Amino acid sequence: MSKRTIHPFLFILVCLLGSCEDIPTLTSTTLSGLIVKNPFFTKMENALIKSGLLLQFNDSQEIHTMLAPEDAAFERFEKLENKDLEEFEADILKKLILHHSIPGSWPGDTLRKTRSLPSAFGPDIRVTNTEGATYLNGARVLFTDVYAQNGLLHGLDQVIVFIDTDNLAALTALQQAPGGQDAAIELILEFIKTEGLEDLIGDQTCTLFLPTDSAMRTMTEPSFDELVRMPNDQKRAFLHHHLIQGEGRFLPELSLDPVKTSAGETIRVDLNARSVGVVKVGKEKWAEVIRGNIETNKGVIHLINRTLN
């Protein structure tokens, strides 16, 4: 799949030719004005309006660096969340947008040289440079340095997701609104709770690679039915194949620096064009990432289409 980028000069040209007739109070050269005028960011515009942040980012007295997911990124996010942005509560959208806002001015050259950025809500945004691209919490930077009176804007290919709970509560929230059967995780979540394995993921910081329902139903050696009949130590061993203890890792970080799972196997990631990728364990085991880079206050969650045991 070819990489589609939006050149910053094209972005500015579209802004200059655009129209703000529906919101006449905006200054066209502020962050809000740039987003409203540009057809690449209508979803971001809608989120700013519903969250009540549109006027805040029209204030030329406050300098921000806005990380703006393109419309295609928001469309994928809506599909995974199983609802449109307009259906989200205003407070949730406000936190989402503020997590994409970095106080102060962070031009592209400075951004690429730093390790983290201070988000206006939630933990810092981590920066990874690999294979000629820059990633922020796993989202690829499509273009940088579109300047406004009150800051500048960088475009992203993904919505950066932070769920302000522990891993177990985050998994429960993800299961309540799966984006279709491909992303459903009811079986693994029920397995963890029923078998008393919550301590492995709920109380410690870790990276989780959790198989979807489809992956659990089609697993072999053992099958899922065989797994649930195994002794508890073997059930715990199964889960250890799917977690990295001690830290949360985003996919680009794992592509740059492979680490070992709790079962002692080296795990690495090959990225694809949409900042997701293929997880590889050893020489033979692999799985595609269905949904990745979901940060919690206890780590990072990735949903995969195969088991890694």
Description:
By secondary structure, this protein is α+β, with helices and mostly antiparallel strands. It has two domains: 8-160, FAS1 domain, CATH 2.30.180; 165-304, FAS1 domain, CATH 2.30.180.10. Helix content is 34%, strand content 26%. The chain is built from 13 helices and 15 strands. Strand 12 (266-271) and strand 13 form a beta hairpin. Helix 1 packs across helix 2 (31-37) and helix 3 (42-51) crosses helix 5 (90-99). The protein is elongated, with a radius of gyration of 20 Å.
Name some characteristics of this structure:
FAS1 domain; 2 domains; 7-stranded mixed beta sheet; 26% strand; 8-stranded mixed beta sheet; alpha+beta; disordered N terminus; 309 residues
Q: How many H/I helical runs?
A: 13
Overall pLDDT confidence: 87
What percentage of the residues does DSSP assign to strands (E)?
25-35%
CATH H-level name of the largest domain... which superfamily? FAS1 domain
Give a topology summary.
Elements: H1 8-17, H2 31-37, H3 42-51, E1 64-69, H4 71-81, H5 90-99, E2 101-103, H6 108-113, E3 116-117, E4 125-130, E5 133-136, E6 139-148, E7 151-156, E8 161-163, H7 167-176, H8 186-194, H9 198-202, E9 206-211, H10 213-218, H11 224-228, H12 232-240, E10 243-245, H13 251-256, E11 259-260, E12 266-271, E13 277-281, E14 285-296, E15 299-304
